[in-house]
Amino acid sequence: MFVSLAVVTVFxxxxxxxxxxxxxxxxxxxxxxxATLGVPQRMMTFLIGAQIAGAAGAVAxxxxxxxxxxxxxxxTLYFAGAVASHLRVGDRRGASPAAVLTVASxxxxxxxxxxx
Length: 116
Fold this sequence. Notes:
By secondary structure, the chain is mainly alpha-helical. Helices cover 84% and strands 0% of the residues.
């Protein structure tokens, strides 16, 4: 069970860091998507920080279970908010990846709780 947790944690952390990097570079695709969602530019720093903190917390959670569960709960809320934001503007295509990451975040909670 711990191996599954480690695999999901590494996968999620890598995705989070790539996404945070794309946001910090203000790539055109991300900038356009955020504008479509109505996310102000001043919120980008917060979103980047949340993704980096989620990745760090998930990795730290491999050693300290409570930290991992807290990080996974935060990531679940983050991605559920992303799903809601995409659906609010009628972007079903953009909501799909966020929904998958929401499910993966819930899987982190379940796996971490099962390995305590």
